[in-house]
Amino acid sequence: MSCTSLPSRLSAVLLLFLAACTVPTKPVVPPVPPVVAPPLTLPPVSFAVSKWEMLPDWQTLDLSPSWGAFIESCRALKHKPAWQTVCAQAGEMTPADNALLRSFFEEHFTPYQVFNPDGSPQGLITGYYEPKLPGSRSKTERFRYPLYAVPDDLLSIDLGELYPQLKDMRLRGRLQGRQVLPYYSRGEIEAGKGALQGRELFWVENAVDLFFLQIQGSGRIELPDGSLVKVGYADQNGHPYQSIGKKLIEMGELKVEEASMQGIKLWAEQHPDKLDALLAKNPSYVFFRELPNQLTAPLGALGVPLTDAYSIAVDPRTIPLGAPVFLSTTYPNSATALNRLMLAQDTGGAIKGAVRADFFWGFGEQAGVQAGKMKQSGQMWVLFPKGAEPALGP
Description:
- By secondary structure, the protein is of the alpha+beta class.
- It is built from 10 helices and 17 strands.
- Among the domains are: 1-38 and 157-183, no CATH class; 46-128 and 298-385, RlpA-like domain (Barwin-like endoglucanases), CATH 2.40.40.
- 24% of the residues lie in helices and 27% in strands.
């Protein structure tokens, strides 16, 4: 959550934060008067009870890969009241065929179609993947661009600890004396601001590839000896994500159909003198951590490994993390139907809104091709455990 995202509440939150975290000095500062957080307005979302036959291809889908991803979700959800029963019963099952799996979901879940605030059922479906970047643990003439670990001067404040209505929201900033200020933007970090010296995890050879690694949130670094090391999202500087593809379109540098990851990389190769200024237009900056090599896949925001082509990133303010989500869309740059039971296991800075998802394609070059060109329209149905369905309006 960006510091600039909470203008009406920021002063109250920061006063409480400073009162709790600052050691008094002489003279003693008078106590801060009590403050009350105003009601939080979340993005409107509406759900409508649906029927299984409304889910395209539901009766003919191969649910085995979806089942594996669902079991991963249960590792994180099994102790939550709404999920205890369904996850316990899933753990006791030995799925034999699609008919059994389909019966399980139909018996234990209710499908709800997701609608946007304007009542429309269609939304944007994009893709992401796990890239591989050549790199080194030390800076060389070839490897000059650093992946940073979380800097020591980055504050991360859980707003839900102060106000329940701000649950799952986090304020990031830095201390300057007794003031909490927004953390440094991408441009400021690239200019040397922040406590980042000594926080370099790896060095890579290409600034654009590093930029897209930050957007993907995870990847693998191929070291000079040929070994691969996994890295994943650790934190973010608190600034809102801004699409550089959209900026290039607005600047007249690219047409809409050219603003894919591949198109942006080609533009960067052709305009190296303009690259730094373009990247700085996205003030968001991601910090990484090295992940255990035994992980089978990147960890999503739910805390479980993602499943290639069966995990999606969602806006957790509208879609509950861990839930099965039936996605009806099309393959990238195609009219061929892509109907699949996915699991909402990740989030992303650009994934905001009700009918909005980011499709995880997996690891490697081919996954990157699919992810880079995916910008499809789609519909979504969330499967809620029976007994834990959402309230449907007044």
